[in-house]
Amino acid sequence: MNWKNLDATESFELLKAHDRVDLSTAMAGESGAKRVAEYRIPMGCGLVYSYAAKQVDDEILDILQALADEQQLTQKYEELYNGGIVNTGESRMVLHQLCRGQLGKDVFHNGVNKREFFVTQQNRIAEFANKVHNGELLNEKGEKYNTVVQIGIGGSDLGPRALYIALENWARVTGNLKMEAKFISNVDPDDASAVLEKVDIPHAIFIVVSKSGTTLETLTNETFVKNAIKAAGCEVSKHMAAVTSETSPLAGNPEYLDSFYMDDFIGGRYSSSSAVGGAVLSLAFGPEIFARILNGAAEEDKLAKNPNVRENADLLDALIGVYERNVFGYPMTAVLPYSQALSRFPAHLQQLDMESNGKHVNRFGEKLNYQTGPIIYGEPGTNGQHSFYQLLHQGTQIVPMQFVGFRKSQRGDDVEIQGTTSQQKLSANVAAQIVAFATGKNDENPNKVFEGQRPSSIIVGDQLIPETLGALLAHFENKVMFQGFTWNINSFDQEGVQLGKVLANKVLANDTDGALAGYSEMLSIF
Amino acid sequence: MNWKNLDATESFELLKAHDRVDLSTAMAGESGAKRVAEYRIPMGCGLVYSYAAKQVDDEILDILQALADEQQLTQKYEELYNGGIVNTGESRMVLHQLCRGQLGKDVFHNGVNKREFFVTQQNRIAEFANKVHNGELLNEKGEKYNTVVQIGIGGSDLGPRALYIALENWARVTGNLKMEAKFISNVDPDDASAVLEKVDIPHAIFIVVSKSGTTLETLTNETFVKNAIKAAGCEVSKHMAAVTSETSPLAGNPEYLDSFYMDDFIGGRYSSSSAVGGAVLSLAFGPEIFARILNGAAEEDKLAKNPNVRENADLLDALIGVYERNVFGYPMTAVLPYSQALSRFPAHLQQLDMESNGKHVNRFGEKLNYQTGPIIYGEPGTNGQHSFYQLLHQGTQIVPMQFVGFRKSQRGDDVEIQGTTSQQKLSANVAAQIVAFATGKNDENPNKVFEGQRPSSIIVGDQLIPETLGALLAHFENKVMFQGFTWNINSFDQEGVQLGKVLANKVLANDTDGALAGYSEMLSIF
Fold first, then answer.
1. How far apart are CA A356 and CA B60, in angstroms?
2. Which of A290, B29, B85, B231 has its CA 20 to 30 A from that of B394?
3. Nearest-angstrom CA–CA distance, A256 and A262
4. Is A444 exposed, middle or buried (0-12, 13-18, 19+ CB in 10 A)?
């Protein structure tokens, strides 16, 4: 494999030198209609990726293809799913896709077939969840459980929480909500305390989730919860389970109902497909629903193998993002789902993307001379339109946008006003925004001028259901992976979180001087 | 008054030419301790603004003072609170501070003393809320109400919602939670449908909030809710109230329990202090608690009059932000509250800041040649540490940070592990992060190098209670105002939201061609 920096490639030079697309012109009139019709790629589960409103044309697509080829992006993906040590910093394989399906060769570690390992955990979780749902497993009073509470932070929280919120209402109306799920993450005691107040503890299962089994926040909240369980007159052993790696101090705790395993080859931010998402989502919705999410992701993973950028949405989305970051110099991307159910999906993508690609050295530890991962943020539309879109339309900083929309609502409960339903209004707004951002509008009054040239893409699906959610999740994971390959960075470690931990421990040991002592005093820590 | 562009000032030239502070050096050792001790400003209600970890020194502070003087920032504030037509684009006064107190002269419009108008609305709301709480006002079955639901979007949603969430747990443990509040905002039918499913409609009051009375999302959701009220066998007239301007179509609806008024001199994103926040928060917590929020804000508003940048946190925070935006070129700011209760506060600030200062023309409609408002985003710590802080520490893009921390939790419910409480751990983490970001760390392994030089400030308070929340709200409102004055833009209009509305209406009228028709078809709108 040829691992080289972006600025060592010939295609990057071509990309920089090439004329830029005038988006206002390109998206106007017949040219716009043609782009919308042609610049789209089918994704998994009926999703479509439309990049008509991105600053690309056929020639630029050719250069992006050359860049994909030169950086061997799909070959590197193949290397990854065949068990290559792609996480070089930590000398580890990267196997989250293997939770969803076998994309290539069998992958072994210490003689264990890893696909079998993941499936075994899925089956163990399914069995556990089924027992909870059918009443084989009951609490100390012989009563059924009705709530599951995930205790985890970062990757053990954001992804599973976003997926739960994404399907909660769909599950409610389709009869698939088996247990309500809640989440405790922050070390702020007000978080655990407030969540616990609303939990029916005697009928709750708490899942402690930490890959290392040493995450400070999670261990603290574990104790918080244990105290609450005891205070409610219940037995800890009837109310707790763990998701962790087999070698962690949390593994196989005899005090717990059960323990389910992930491994070192799945990073926290990629762990929604593993037992980290599997346990809470299987308990909440049933194992069949979790399996449908995985199937959707697996379908997208397969499409990501295609080396043709015009047919591989994950790959092209990645490359257009690099073009925007390194040629246009745009420092961020907004993720704007027109679906209230995806309200926390941007927060998950924020971790996924920024923790993976917020790096200043390449995979060999050499400092880079170009920009890497962008800042990611977002809120659902139409809410965002009434909030920060003013800056996106008329501010001095161009922010590329990633829209998501669905043709049908999840609940099917709607109202018609002025001749259209809410769902039609929602979709009309996202269509209007894409065109408004791209084409802009002139006016005699400069305060009413929209300069346009704001690039966006949209992923459109029929409805947000387990399969489409899985495909969406995999799309962004694969996009981030391809961008990491293009930038020649390791998207799978996170050394940047260490220094803060070290200094926090110094404060907690009351071993401070200088500024650290000053802040500790200001905050009256001791 | 002398309204001039930033790049027409002498002090901006001085600022650009001045040596930049090496933050890693400045924040190390004794120098760091000294900065933390000295670079702080008392704010309202015992809050402290600490800017030790910003890239300033005494000389730069002198230049920022000169810039404040040259741009007449506190004089312009005086002009604003004395009723000047500061919102020039819409020829309107800007009076949100007047909801909280009389800062200057009496302000009249059409013969009405505006302070008296706002107080009258507060009193009418207080009377209404008291009647609801003490059972004088009952539902059609003679039962007490227990829930209030705000129907609004943008400024009628984000601010009130953020404030409600900020105090909900505090109110719960201090016996001040009179009614639970919920919010419906998005035109996505899944939003209203899902919220309504969890509302006890026979005991709920729905407040329809729209200044203009014409907001599409809000009118749509009003009908959604009316249908639900009828479907629950209840009378609309016993379950709905309005907050709007006196001239709007929603005003004085005889079908409603009551209507409360704001006016055109308060922009949506500044309306939390008006009836827009007043009605829902007075019903949820009682009018005394809402009054305490306003008192906190009023205290901060008074401090913002001080022309000395070393004594006025709102002013200095604004100027440092301009320095970072226009000299360092940082395109965004992260807001990172170490308080789970402030989980939605960044979303409110995102609207407040980006909608106010995301402008490309000055207040006279002339195109600007410099950057204006930054992108704002954020999540609570310590959650963010396990998510996007990797990029903040080691990414290629520097992002200035605004931390918020409190010495005490709201609920006082805590657990001690490894010798420290969760609250201590929370505070230790924010102290550690500030120092880690500023000073960085060298290492033989480049992947473990932290370059430092990441600027941040922190606002520290004793506890998040109504007064401190009000002071915090006013701080950011005033900061945004001072930045707008510095950039010479109108922070109080939002022309940038219009084009999307026009195009969405074309789609809904099925009157499309070109790209707009293409997207409409892709989304199967008709």
1. 36
2. B29
3. 17
4. exposed
- Contact between residue B97 and residue B103 where contact means Cβ atoms under 8 Å apart: yes
How large is the ipTM?
A: 0.97
Please indicate whether, in this complex, the C-beta atoms of A433 and B33 are within 8 angstroms of each other. Answer: no
Residue A386 falls in the annotated catalytic set: yes
What's the Cα-to-Cα distance from A365 to each of A88, A89, A325, A481, B324, rounded to whole Å? 10, 8, 21, 18, 29
**Mean pLDDT within B219-239:** 96
Interface residue of A364, A519, A522 to substitute, partner B, most B CBs within 10 Å = A519
Closest CB to B375: pick one of A155, A332, A358: A332
| pLDDT tens profile B302-338 | 999 999 999 999 999 999 999 999 999 999 999 999 9
Exposure class string for A53-80: b at 16+ Cβ within 10 A, else e = bbbbeeebbebbbbbbebbbbbebbbbb
Strand residue runs (E) in B290-431:
332-337, 375-377, 401-406, 416-417, 420-421
Q: How far apart are CA A485 and CA A501, in angstroms?
A: 28
Query: Strand (E) positions, B203-267?
Result: 204-209, 240-245, 259-262
Of B372, B434, B518, the CB nearest to A37: B518
Which is nearest to A484 in space by CA: B251, B390, B341, B285?
B390
The reported pTM is 0.97
List all residues 6 or more positions away from A21 whose beta carbon is below 8 Å from its beta carbon: A55, A56, A57, A60
| CA pair distance B395, B385, nearest whole angstrom | 14
Q: Using DSSP, state whether A134 is helix, strand or coil.
A: helix
Instruction: Give Cα B23 to chain centroid, integer Å.
Output: 29
CA atoms within 13 A on the CB side of A301: 26
Per-residue pLDDT of A300-345, as tens digits, reads 999 999 999 999 999 999 999 999 999 999 999 999 999 999 999 9
Tokens of B30: 């004794």
What does each C-alpha distance from A462 to A97, A166, B388, B442 come to in angstroms? 24, 15, 31, 51
Q: Which helix (H) or strand (E) holds A232?
A: none
Checking DSSP bridges between strand A240-245 and strand A258-262, what pairing results, if any?
Answer: parallel
Work out the burial of residue B10: count CB atoms within 10 Å of its CB; fewer than 13 is exposed, 13-18 middle, 19 or more buried.
exposed
User: Distance, in angstroms, between B362 CA and closest chain A CA?
Assistant: 8
Residue B355 catalytic?
Answer: yes
Token digits for A125?
């979780």
Interval A25-39 mean pLDDT:
98
Instruction: With CA atoms as reference, report the closest residue to A334 among A381, A399, A280.
Output: A399
Q: In what order do the strands lie in the sheet with B259-262?
A: B180-184, B147-151, B204-209, B240-245, B259-262
For residue B252, the SS3 value is coil
Q: Which residues of A touch B188 (CB under 8 A)?
A: 338-340, 380, 382, 409, 422-423, 426
Looking at the DSSP bridge assignments, the partners of residue B285 are: none
H-assigned helices in B360-513: 389-394, 422-439, 466-487, 498-508
Active site residue B178: no
Residue B296 to residue B471: CA distance in whole angstroms: 5
